[in-house]
Design goal:
Layout (H helix, E strand, L loop, with lengths): L1 E2 L2 H23 L4 E7 L3 H17 L2 E7 L5 H12 L6 E4 L9 H7 L11 H8 L8 H12 L8 E5 L6 H10 L3 E5 L6 H5 L4 E4 L17 E4 L3 E2 L5 E2 L4 H4 L5 E2 L6 H18 L3
Parallel strand pairs: 1-11, 2-3, 2-4, 5-6, 5-7, 7-8, 8-11
Antiparallel strand pairs: 9-10
The structure holds nicotinamide-adenine-dinucleotide.
The site of nicotinamide-adenine-dinucleotide (NAD) has 25 residues, from helix 10.
Amino acid sequence: MQLIDGKKLSQKVQESVSIEVEELKVEKNIVPGLAVLLIGDDPASHAYVKMKAKACEKVGFYSITHNMPDTISQDEIIATIEMMNSNPRIDGILVQLPLPKHIDTEKILEVINPEKDVDGFHAYNVGRLVTGLEGFVACTPLGVMKMFKEYNIDLEGKDVCVVGASNIVGKPMASLLLNANATVTVTHIFTKDLKSHTSKADIIVVGVGVPKLIKEDMVKEGAIVIDIGINRIEDGSLVGDVDFENVSSKCSFITPVPGGVGPMTIAMLLSNTLKAAKGRK
Ligand code: NAD
């Protein structure tokens, strides 16, 4: 069994982003800029945004966080995004999800200029991903693809079971895998017999938010298991969606939680923002 070290790979990506930022500054006088909209006081969202701001600072980006109360109206959020759309110093716009219940998330995401959509959630970029065209891709599944590449894991013809089918994790993950010529099965809460799908898979990619959902008897010998889940359990520790202790010995490769996919998400956000800055008009 080999551990896929997301922390180490994330650092490697961040170092190469830093170098490119320096070059961009010297050659074109461009400093990549990221705007983050943080609405409400969800502690997890605040923690994620803080980590993102810190990572931006480390690689030499300009970043601003718009901190708004959860009483804010949809129109006010839209006006802020429009301001960021026309701000020449801002290359990437990120709206931290989830949004308060009175806000229509899809409507908000549609307001972001697709060229600044570094989270890859805009329908324009989702459409480009599905059709296999260049665009911005959601950071978490993009980070998983980076892991496959780094560890020379060939996807062509592999049976991959994606567990979880959200717009931000499972669906873009499935599209990326399909574009890489894998045979993809997408499972979700309404799947009748999850084990019958996971136990046949060469690769399992799970992102559902259920601690230890993937158990030993659901994984075939030698499988590759990628755990996207982040769950805080009663004792305060973070665990994934895989019963790591019992599953890992069966795997050829597995990601830990923490230190697996999580750090890759931030690295890919930086990489996407750099890409947007390089395309600045
Ligand atoms: P979500 O609630 O939007 O979607 C969950 C998906 O899992 C749905 O498709 C649902 O049908 C499916 N699901 C739920 N219970 C299931 C079950 N028992 N069996 C099979 N499928 C089931 O969640 P999300 O935003 O996609 O996040 C999923 C997990 O990934 C969470 O733990 C979240 O914290 C984590 N996450 C991690 C990162 C990261 O950077 N590592 C990024 C985003 C999300």
